[in-house]
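Appendix B, Record 12. Input sequence as logged:
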Amino acid sequence: MVLVYSDNKKLVFEMLNVAVELGKNTKKEVIAVIIGKSDESLAREYISYGADNVFIAETNFETFKAEEYTDILSKVVEETGADTILIGSNKNGKELSARLGGILNAGCVVDSNNIYIKDNNIFAERVVYSGNAIAILKFNSKPAIITIPPKAFDPLKKDEKRKGEITKKKIEAEKSQSKILKVQELKSEGVNVEDAEIIVSCGRGFKNKEDIKLVNDLADVLKGKTVGCSRPIAADLKWLSEDHWIGLSGHKVKPKLYIAAGISGQIQHIAGMRDSGIIVAINKDPEALIFKSADYGIVGDLYEVIPKLTAAVKEKMG
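Logged structural output:
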């Protein structure tokens, strides 16, 4: 069985893509797991995106705690006989996968962006050395645990006519002695670069904070309305909040269009936007590294190029 779990349903939709492919190659069913209260509408959604079976592990726990959820998921693995386990690589998923690997004495590969079967063995690939290399890892034992980051795969086309089974079972887990004293939401400006389809990013080529209005204007006419930035803008100069920060230590994005203005193209930034559909670079230095990753490059002063580009787009889009 190929088992898929995340507390983020969008991430489950994406993971079901690769799970279905693995299921076809190994002739095994794909099982999506829901932990918590029974949610048949969500279960039917998982089936429409490729799951053959949805296992609802009913529990009274109201909030995520890694110790308890690991105990529950390990029992689901035992119940289903899953030998391949895909877990969403968000904050909770990373902690859950590591603990699960310890309990099951299983190998765990984190942040994989390619998984395949070769000679009856499971292989997982992940980007290493800030995007300079790809590590290929083979599992020598089962179960195999693999975490998958957001945007690594596109969801399959939703098919509401797909049939599948929904299994409900009360799963008891030992209550952890640890306590959650307080949960405080991260203060945000309401920016979600990870879900944006169009992003206009600014870098150290901008001389003043006020000049960021140039990328705001371009984002507005593109109807993207999402502004990103490189590390210096958010971490050093504090011109924008970390919600906008794109890069290895910031957010990883996969928009249809990514415009990088005044960004040199250091590997840490490239690692965060390399999977974008179309990349346009604007930089006055013709030798800037960003051009090696760009589909289209404009060599010129951003203070001249961006206003002209904004006007041209505005005219074209009416």
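The mean pLDDT is 93.
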